[in-house]
Amino acid sequence: xxxxxxxxxxxxDCRELVVIHVRRMGYQVIEAATGEEAIRKASEQIPDxxxxxxxxPGMSGAEAxxxxxxxxxxxxxxxxxxxxxxxxxxxxxxxxxxxxxYLTKPTPSKVFERVIQNxxxxxxxxxxxxxxxxx
Length: 135
Ligand code: MN
Description:
Blueprint: E1 4-8, H1 12-24, E2 28-32, H2 35-45, E3 49-52, H3 61-70, E4 79-83, H4 87-97, E5 101-104, H5 109-120, H6 127-132
Parallel strand pairs: 1-2, 1-3, 3-4, 4-5
The protein binds manganese (II) ion.
């Protein structure tokens, strides 16, 4: 069974790109356009990871993260912030809310994939170092 990733993003074009990318990595994808929808879908479907936009209409991604972490059903799901908001002012707040990692848009594909894979399969990403170095 492929692991399940919930992509939370209000901009549909942006969400589509992330969804395609995550799907191409071999994961099953669930989508949400708001924090409220994210909380509902996360508690119903218990994804293995949540990719969370911070700038959302209504509840912010940081608020949604706090609520997800306060709910026993969803508290253990790792959350990665993926946002255009630069880290100097927003990362600390997001970390305090409970995000595992903070990625700023645009993030190079390799970095995006490494962060996601390291959280979902922390022990299976070692093969990249030896084989790919000869290129
Ligand atoms: Mn947004």
